[in-house]
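User: Please run a holo structure prediction.
Assistant: Happy to. Please share the sequence and the ligand.
User: Here you go; the ligand is calcium ion.
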Amino acid sequence: MRKITLSLAALFVAAAAAFPAENSMKNHRILSPDGLTYLDVRLDGGRLCYSAGYRTLVKAKKKGAPADTLDVPVLLDSPLGLYTNVADMSKDLEFLKTEDLGTHKNEYRLRGSKQSQVSTEENSRYFLFTNPEAKEQKLALMVGFRVFNNNIAYSYRIFQGQGAETTAIVVTGEASGFRLPADATAFICPQSSPMVGWKRTKPSYEENYIWDKPVTTRSQYGQGWTFPCLFRIPGHPWKSDASGRNGATDSWLLISETGVSGNYCASHLSDATSDGLFTIAFPMQGENNGFGSTGAQMGLADCNISPNDWMTQWTPYRTLTFGPSLKPIVETTVPWDVVEQLYEPSTEYKGSRNTWSWIIWQDASINYDDQVRFIDLAASLGWEGCLIDGGWYENIGRKGMEKLFAYCREKGIRPWVWYNSNGGWNDAPQSARQCMHNPIVRKQEMKWLRDGGVAGIKVDFFGGDKQETMRLYEAILSDANDYGIQVIFHGCTLPRGWEKMYPNYCSSEAVLASENLYFSQGFCEMEARHACLHPFVRNAVASMEYGGTVLQKRLHKEAGKGNTRRTSDVFELATAVVFQSSGQNFALTPRNLTEQPQFEIDFMKGVPTTWDETRFIDGYPGRYVIMARRSGNKWYVAGLNAQEQAVELTIQLPMFDAGSTLTVYGDNEKLEGSMTTTALGKKQQLSVTIPQNGGIVITQ
Ligand code: CA
């Protein structure tokens, strides 16, 4: 990809001179390598727009004639363009040049996500435009489209022409839009207003989704919607397809962004207009305690692009994942397909299952003795780590922490340590503070952590989505890698391609996570619904540090106190598979060792956190999900049900050999769990029943 853009840079110079500018351009259709995903791009009266969908085979009108193809649109005519401090490049655009870059194959290794070995194939095309304002500065706008099977990604680059004085700009906004059909429905999460919530720590991607609601629904806080955004586009029964399904299949579309580094801000979607148009929205001025620009400061691309600078000169990618089922969405790798690793890992980073006292024992447990108990718990489970949460600086102290680090070494456990990201962007009081915001103290801290054998840090309470804050995320990751330390973010933004970009990046919260079970009975009542949503939305595009698998029935250190969990134990076991994060801070407590059936403890001793493959089997967002993940040679098929009625399905299990003995963790209608074995028949299918708030796990 980079080599191709080099030749295009030179081409622009030639093109600008050689081609008369036009303010319209014929429609260009870009097809995916399998020919089934399409993207249309055209310039109409100086406005650039695009639309997209997939092609399905339809019955020929005449008997015996070959099947025809039918376009199934998922994204209607939507605008493109950039607003900058030197030129408005959303209007009066003049077409200079386009080039079909052909088919490009790529293979890469992805650590700590849903699939370890990824092969992609894409068709890409670049377009070059200028306009009267940009021409004055000798600048041109390049838009690059990459069309994969079931996925589309695009981004912008601003080019300097020969003799241009301007080498730096501020992007103040994007015209990039997403127009949905009028009957589409949305599964989307509102963006919070800034500097509100606990200790003025929002936004942190922890709001309640709307479920299957019209796309024109107004967002709760008037600030639009956070990525990723899932849409259902109802099928159209008047068009029949070759499978005889009358074309009535719903289409699904997931919109997100990836490749956000310190060189840009993170964005979200506006509320939709009355005709279903969402547009890219930049951070709110109030974020980060009002400090820092809402725009993005960029260096411009010239003809002498060095091999490593693509991140500085392309904007982040806007991504669309879609098709006639949820399979492309659950299995998508587009957040990583279009980004590159930004530095080499300094060591071999591994997945980790951690005990975590804070999630049920809360602040009072951040003391030396309780941490010893959770280190012991990790050791007895055969897990890799123990997370020591906020408050350690005053309650345990550095000397006490060093003793705990030594105790971890003795037990064969690696500690993870919590930090406050502040700084000065919100009022979160927990310690350790003032260690991560400044490069001088941060590097000292990283050295102390490395010397203590710490595997990772969990950094909490960030200031929002401004470029200022993206630079902090990147700086923490980069410094941590220098000392062989992994990073989990909490109270934070959605990670956008970071599993690949930053090899020591582990996971992020950016979701209403398990802590809310402790905080609110209302959340306990909704736990299953949320869990059945995440595989299709939040967790489809990035690792999700949920802090799950609560096996205590009541959410409190003391027996008989706290909120009551509504889900079954097997449901909780299944979330260990369904929720993907290479570092898992599970909610098990010392009492689980004596109170839970042995099969539950044994399952948690064996469950992996790193996966080689992920497959969607069945489900509907917020209702139920059945999916499979493979770790090494071992497959785990996991299901969750939030619906009142039981899920009763016969599922195909081609990942297991016919005749093999399967272990099935399941629930009866009273949500009593059991572990049984069954032989898989010749047809490799199994009938499963999952009651409301119940789960299932099938493994070898
Ligand atoms: Ca949180």
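Residues 364-510 form a domain with the TIM Barrel fold (CATH 3.20.20.70).
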